[in-house]
Amino acid sequence: MVVASPNPMRNEKILAIDLPMIDLSADRSEVGKLIVRACEEYGFFKVINHGVPEGVIAEMEQESVNFFEKPLAEKQRAGPANPFGYGCKNIGFNGDMGEVEFLLLHTNPLSIAQRSKSISNDPSKFGSAMNNYIRAVRELACEILDLMAEGLWVRDPSYFSKMIKDVENDSFFRINHYPSCCNNNTTRVGFGEHSDPQILTILRSNDVGGLQISPDHGVWIPVAPDPAAFCVNVGDVLQAMTNGRFVSVRHRALSDSSQSRMSMAYFGAPALQARVSAPPEMVTINRPSLYRPFTWAEYKATAYSLSLGDNRLDLFINCKDDDHKKLLD
Question: How far is CA 161 from each of CA 156, 170, 183, 199, rounded to the nearest angstrom?
Answer without folding.
Answer: 10, 13, 44, 9
